[in-house]
TrEMBL record:
This is ZIP Zinc transporter. The chain crosses the membrane at residues 6-25, 32-51, 71-89, 110-133, 139-160, 172-191, 197-214, 226-242. Keywords: Membrane, Transmembrane, Transmembrane helix. The keyword Isomerase does not apply.
Length: 243
């Protein structure tokens, strides 16, 4: 099947990593209302657009995994795995920073842990890049909605990663994430995977989005504004339900 190339979505998401950390007006405490709005938009997209799509895709997954009773809800298991993986990574980062603080050294995780963290997010970005490619085969509206949600999600991720790793993220991490995103997107032109695998990837990413947004909103020291998060979620939900 002929595939129509739309390079603008991957360029927009890549530019988020190039320039996201330079948006100084988003930094500081209390947490920027714009970051909270962005988080709300991302979560609304997952619950109101991605999960219903996964529910439909569950039929394809069940056909590929016939008979495993406890795996009947494969897509939601993958979403749980995605959430759990990134929760584990976040806990490891926080623990490492606390240990460094107790040793009275710089408030950054060790270099080895930095690369593990970046590798995990690189895989995450590559999966999102591949999903972006698959979206090009569908309606333009679907591509635009996904691109907006992921662009705002990347802004939230950038500030979280910079807070953990500081100059390491600016010098190395963001470049790795850009390369991973483009590589995942480009892989779509070289490798065709089954719809079942695409659905499982979508569910993993959905779980990751939920955790990566909430972990930035919940810590008390962030002084996040719930109303901004709720407003972003509400407005994007209205948009999604009206289309």
């Amino acid at each position: 099947m002929e595939h129509h190339v739309s390079i603008w979505p991957v360029l927009v998401l890549a530019l988020i990593h190039f320039f996201g950390t330079r948006l100084r007006f988003l930094a500081g405490v209390p947490r920027s209302v714009w970051l909270s709005v962005a988080g709300g938009v991302s979560v609304a997209y997952v619950f109101l657009h991605l999960f219903p799509e996964l529910s439909e895709g569950q039929e394809h997954v069940e056909e590929a995994f016939v008979g495993e009773g406890f795996l009947r809800h494969h897509v939601y298991i993958m979403a749980l795995i995605g959430l759990s993986v990134f929760y584990g990574l976040e806990r490891k980062m926080v623990s490492a920073k606390e240990e460094q603080k107790e040793k009275k050294v710089d408030n950054k995780p060790p270099p080895g842990l930095f690369w593990v963290h970046m590798a995990s997010f690189a895989i995450y970005n590559a999966l999102i890049g591949y999903i972006l490619f698959t979206r090009e085969e569908g309606p333009l509206q679907q591509l635009v909605l996904f691109s907006i949600a992921m662009a705002l999600h990347f802004v939230v991720n950038d500030f979280g990663l910079q807070e953990h790793h500081h100059d390491r993220y600016r010098k190395y991490g963001r470049w790795l994430l850009v390369l991973a995103l483009v590589a995942g997107w480009g892989t779509g032109y070289l490798v065709t995977v089954s719809h079942t695998l695409v659905v499982l990837v979508l569910s993993f990413v959905g779980g990751g989005v939920i955790l990566n947004v909430l972990k930035e909103e919940l810590p008390e020291e962030r002084k996040s504004r719930y109303w901004a998060f709720a407003l972003g979620a509400f407005l994007y939900a209205i948009l999604l339900l009206s289309l």
